[in-house]
Amino acid sequence: MPDLASTPSSRPLTVRRITRAEHGRFLAEHPEASFLQNPQWPGVKIDWRGDSVGFYDGETLRATALVLFRRLPVPLPVLKRRSLAYVAEGPVFDRTGGDAVVDLESVLVPLVQYLKSRGAFLVRVGLPGVVNRWDGAEVRKALAAGEHRSVTQLEPIHTAPEAAEVRERLTALGWRAPAEAEEFEAGQPQFQARIPLQPELDAPGPDGTGAEPNKNGESPALEAALNRMDSTSRRQTRKSTRSELTITVGTAEDLPAWQALYEETATRDGFTGRPLAYFQRMFAELNAGGPRAAGSGSGDTAADTECTLYLAHYGEQLLAAAIYVRQARFGWYVYGASSSEERKRYAPRALQLRQIKDSLAAGCTWFDLGGMSPSLDPEYELAGLTRFKTTMGADVVQTYGEWDYPVNRALAAAFNLYMSRRG
Question: pTM here?
Answer without folding.
Answer: 0.91
